[in-house]
Every structure is written in structure tokens, then in C-alpha cells.
Amino acid sequence: MSGAAAPARSELPQVLPPERPLVDLWAGCATALIFYVEYLGLGSLLGGAVLPGMPNGAALGAMLVLVPVVAACLFGFASRGAGLAGPRAASTSLTAAFLLLIVGAYEGAESARTGLLSVMAAAAASTLLIGRLDAVAVKVRRAPVWLVQGFMYATALGIIAGSASAGRLMQCLRVDALATWLAWLLPVLLGIAWKPVLGQLHGYARGQGVRPERARALVLAQPLGLLVASACSWLIYSRSRLAAPNNGLCGPFGDLRMDWGLLADRMGSIGGQIGSLPLGALVVAALCGVVIGGVLVLESLTAFSLNAKLPAYARCQAPMLSAAAAGGLVSAAVGSAGASFSTSRTSTLRMMGGWGRWAAPAHGVALLGIAVFAASWVAQVPKLTAAVALTLVGVQMLASDTEILWRRGYRPGAVSPRRSAVVLFWLVLAVSLAANNALAGFVVLGAGASLAAMARDRRRRRLRRRPAPS
After folding, report:
1. Tens-digit pLDDT profile for residues 95-145
2. Is the pTM of this model over 0.85?
3. Cα–Cα–Cα angle for 430, 434, 437, rounded to 5 degrees
4. pLDDT, tens digit, for every residue of 409-454?
5. pLDDT at 455 over 50
6. Residue 247 scores a pLDDT above 70
7. Mean confidence (pLDDT) of the chain
8. Which of 307, 293, 370 is nearest to 337 (CA)?
């Protein structure tokens, strides 16, 4: 396993490293196992909108999430960017919210959910391609930290407090409150503390003169927090009243086999469903897809911050976005969600040693293998465990930029611009909570920031044109 360790950034060449297919294969398979429960949680989020209230909604959602992940990973072979793309929490929750909004607004849309998702996914995948433009990348890099982090915080809060995570928790609380808190809270705390504790142990081990190969094991184990927390939740669940047979409120996922026939049926029904929808519903769905595509661009370009000091990988970003867009078009063919790059998944892949072109395809193929050959085992995963995974995903969305923003704005003697940034951050959150939509705060405050910047630029131009006093 020590051979799978990622090279330090300072040691990376300005060109792509030599191919190491076996190490890439290990990294892809390991990350597939680590993040499979997260994909199940995202599937539960999407399934609630595709088949609301249906017991097999989570199973269908999980399958629809795996399709764009596998497609984007396979297309990523040509990019050599060593990144993992697929549905992410912010864009997936927004997709579910828009779908429910359109279904409630237009008559006949209830029976055409697959067609609506197809239109939204196609528009989102097309919009993702604008991230290839340098001007767009520069704009995202220069976006105010308070705006981006406020949007991420509002999205994370919606995921943790939404039906996909807190909803599962509430259902289990009706069965056994104490066991539910133990099976949810303890694993969440374990998942949050896992990486920083191992980081501290690694520093201590190095200070005590422990051999480097042994200390490196602590580094390799750091990405396993979500997997360890999920296993802990499952263990507590299985030893409590929550695991009682026929437990409809708080049971396992059940049958999660990949139903290829169902995918074929969805592909065949899309054309007819789109034709049955009114023009207004199609236009609104396409506009919603453009908005979702903007979120995909934001998610991907912020994930590309991992390449800031890696010129060889920074040059791969344009084809990486094309690979994610191609995965989104495949998902549109089955009525699923769009794909974007993930910071946590990509950093974990590289930490496991996956720096080559084979890493992402190995991840996708391993996911298919789990879905096909381990379906009976995965079917026993409790829905409460997926809630733990989604809660940890929401917590991980609070990046170090949020911590820096708070530290600088809250400290005694902080300068006015930094205090203002914290105020604006919470204003983004307040608008999002008032509208019950994370995108609302981003749009409103983003438009306000743009207008303020334009006003400042005009004022500066007027001052420059003003003649100097004689």
C-alpha cells in the first residue's frame, strides 16, 4: 500500500507523471468503496423527487446517480486529469427542487418527470462547457469568498436538514430514539474527527522518529473517515431495535440491483414525454438546466483549485470539463442528474496514488462491479447510514476558505472589509433560508455585488476623466 502514496506537490514534475496502471487501479477501486455510500445518499436525494413516497425511489435514484458517475469516469480516460466527476450534493439537491417545482406548476408534468430531467440534464451539460472559457474561470476565481462560501454553507445546511438526511433521522426516531442518536450522532462525530486526529497522530509519529513508511499509513487512512463512520453506523444499527424485520420506517435500502431494462424503458419514454409537455414547461426546464449548469461550473472550477500548483494538471482542465459534460449528456439520455468534479473525491483519489489516466475509469468500473455483483450486500445498508454519509458530505462542504473567512472577520480588531465579508456571508444564508432555496441567496447577493462593482468602476472612470485642478 505504501507504493500507492501520492507524490508530494513539490516533487511533481511540470509534465504528467509516468503511467502506473496498477496503482491507478488500486486508487480507483479504493475510492469506489469509500464513496459508494455517498452515492447511495445522493440517490436517495434524487429518488425522493423522481418517485416521491415510493419505497423503491431510493433504489432508482442510486442507479440514476451511478450512470453519470460511471460515464464521466470512462470519458475521463482521454483527459488524463485524474479527477472524479459525478452528481454532487449542491447540484443534485437543486435538480430535485426544480423538478418538484415544475411538476407542481404544470398540468401533465407529473407523468413526465423523466422527460423533464432529461431536458434539465442536457441543458446543464451544455452549460458546463462554458467553464472551458478562460474568462469564466477568471470570474469564478475572483468571485467574493463570502458569496461562494455562503452558497456552499446554505447548500450544506439544506442537505443536512433536508429529507435525505434529517428526514431519515426523524423516521428512525419514531422507532427507537436512543438507538437512532447513537447510530447517527456518534458516527458523524467520528467522521468529522477522523482526518484531523490522524493528522495530529501523523505529526506526533514523525516527531517521535517513527519510520516514514509506518507514518505514511496514517496519511493513507485519512480519506477513510466517511467509510469508517458508515461502518460504525451500520454496526450500531444492526445491534439495536432499528434492525427489526419489516421495519418500514427505518429499514435498509432493499433491492438496489441495476435494472438495465428500466434504464432502457426510461430512454424509450423520453421522446414521448417531452412531446406531451407544454412548451412553457420545456422552456422552464431548460432554463432550470442552465441554472444547474452554472452550479456545475462553480462546483467544478472550485474543485480545480487542487491544480493551482500543478501546471500539468491545470492544462487538463478543459478536456476534463468536456468529459463531465459528456457524462451529463449520457445521464440526460436516461433522465438523471448532471455531473461535476468533486474536491473531496479527487483529492482522495490522488492521495491514494491515482495520478494517471487509468484512475478515474477504474473508479467507474469498480462502481459498476459493486452495483452488479454486490447488490445483495449493499441492499442491507440502512437508510440511516446514508443519512450519516450525507451529513458528513454537508460538513465537508465547509471548506478551509469558510474557516479563514470567519477567523479573520470575528477576531478582535478585525478591519471593516473583513467584518463586512462575514455579514454578507450570513446575509446570503438568511436570504437562502427565507426562500428555502440555497440558490436564492447566491443570485440576490451576487447580483447586488455585481451592481456595486459596476457602480465603483463607473465612479473611478469619472474621477480619472475629471481634469486636474489648475
Report:
1. 998 999 999 999 888 889 999 999 999 999 999 999 999 888 888 878 888
2. no
3. 95
4. 888 878 888 888 899 999 999 998 888 777 788 888 888 888 888 8
5. yes
6. no
7. 85
8. 293
Distance CA 143, CA 136 (A): 10
Nearest to 364 by CA among 339, 389, 332: 339
Beta-carbon-side half-sphere exposure of residue 337 (alpha carbons within 13 Å): 37
Ramachandran area for residue 353 (φ above 0: left; ψ -120 to 50: alpha; else beta): left
- Other CB atoms within 10 Å distance of the CB of residue 178: 10
Supply 281's cell numbers: 414547461
Which distant-in-sequence residues (6+ apart) come within 8 Å of 423 by Cβ? Answer: none
Contact 111, 290 (CB under 8 A): no
Q: Could you tell me which of 300, 325, 340, 286 has the C-alpha nearest to residue 136?
A: 300
Cell of 373: 455483483
> Exposure of 408 by Cβ count < 10 A (0-12 exposed, 13-18 middle, 19+ buried)?
middle
**Number of Cα atoms under 13 Å in the Cβ half of residue 225:** 25
Residue for cell digits 513539490? 10
Per-residue pLDDT band at 14 (split at 50, 70, 90): low
Q: Give the pLDDT of residue 271.
A: 92
Whole-number Cα distances in Å, 147 to 32, 160, 446? 32, 20, 7
3-state secondary structure 87-120: CCHHHHHHHHHHHHHHHHHCCCHHHHHHHHHHHH
Rounded CA gap, 410 and 421, in Å? Answer: 10
